[in-house]
């Protein structure tokens, strides 16, 4: 059984994943044009400036779409099948793909409000984001 | 490369062009034989000695975009006859589960793949949102699968040969909701070859030429989580560009061969390219609009859903079928009097689009 994939950090993304390890969800915003980027890059994809600043997200957002995956991409995901995969519109304006916990599959719906938590992945216990219903508190 | 060479030989023979006459070679990507110089590998294997060669990789749009490259090469005078080839033996070399894993690499290594995104899962996300916004139903998606299978039954070379019903689609197992097994394309072995010739060079070939009247591309994203929209994609740009160049409108098209990696793919593309209003293509499919005698016969060979999906060749089969329809060579699946065809390919998760309008006198 192969293990589930672990993100391979790059110069663009290491700050994001290191923040996840401290249970903080971060995103990049361009200080020149104000655009929020969906994933970390060396430059702003809207205006091309390199003046990006890291901000901490409140970790809340809305389900843009969801799918219950019954056939994963590799044997590593088989024990979890079926599992929920979502694309989230985070409140600060960036998007995130992740899974869902603490919620019955039938209760996941478009426009559902969520908050981000973290789960350990891999031998080194790297933390990756996971969504759960906001009203569970 | 054996499959590629068979397809290249077949295309040359069909056109009445010798390998010595081919001065341009474009070749698609291969998952089973990945290489940084695939066009060189192909030319060496097949015994081709072109003056221009390159490999092109745009996922499922590779076929359409290769033909656009080839057209630019002959229009510029750089080449006279450009061979476009694509193929993959995904079933025999990768196995079906191996192919599913391999194509999942289209996902982002850090921001998609760790969460278990497969290609069907990505399309499941698109489908869920699209059905939500436009009120289309799973039954309407199923109608696309059933119609496409009916077309494949008229093609002796099709991968799938058993009739299916709406109930069969509804009862097939869920792959990634709302998509079921019969909403998903096949995994096949296959290859395709197309020769694009300069207008004056085409006069020397065996058959009456099919003309490229217009073409266009549209590119919005690669990764689905970074797509600007889950309901509006590059086909909304590529099709108007192609129609504009050709000077025709959607209603003029006699037959359409449009990328159908999933039923939702075809539904979105039919609606985005102006053939149907948003939310109406599925009902039209239920009413028979995409059948041979319908208002827009579509994927008359059986598409990726039922004819075959073999990597870059999958999207090329739409083009070879469009050519056969315009030549009147489509036998039992011929659309009577077809003069104008639209062919379309898309790569990734509706990420890169190429549309071509083909015509005959």
What's the quick description here?
The complex is a heterodimer of chains A (137) and B (361). With 137 residues, chain A is mainly beta.
Structure description:
The complex is a heterodimer of chains A (137) and B (361). Chain A is 6% helix and 38% strand. Chain A has one helix at 14-21; strands at 26-30, 36-37, 52-56, 60-69, 83-90, 95-99, 113-121, 126-133. In chain A, strands 6-5-4-7-8 form a five-stranded antiparallel sheet, covered by helices on one side. Chain A has a three-stranded antiparallel sheet with strand order 2-1-3, covered by helices on one side. In chain A, a hairpin with a 4-residue loop joins β7 (113-121) and β8. The termini of chain A are far apart. The mean pLDDT of chain A is 95. Chain B has 361 residues and is an alpha/beta fold. Chain B has two domains: 2-93 and 193-202, Thiolase/Chalcone synthase (Peroxisomal Thiolase, Chain A, domain 1); 97-186 and 208-359, Peroxisomal Thiolase, Chain A, domain 1 (3-Layer(aba) Sandwich), CATH 3.40.47.10. Chain B contains 14 helices and ten strands. Chain B has helices spanning 2-15, 38-46, 62-75, 90-94, 96-103, 119-134, 138-152, 166-171, 199-202, 235-246, 263-272, 281-286, 303-307, 312-327, and strands at residues 24-28, 52-56, 81-89, 174-176, 179-180, 189-197, 211-219, 255-258, 340-347, 352-359. In chain B, the strands form three sheets. Chain B has a four-stranded mixed sheet, sandwiched between helices. In chain B, a hairpin with a 4-residue loop joins β9 (340-347) and β10. The chains are: A mainly beta (137), B alpha/beta (361).
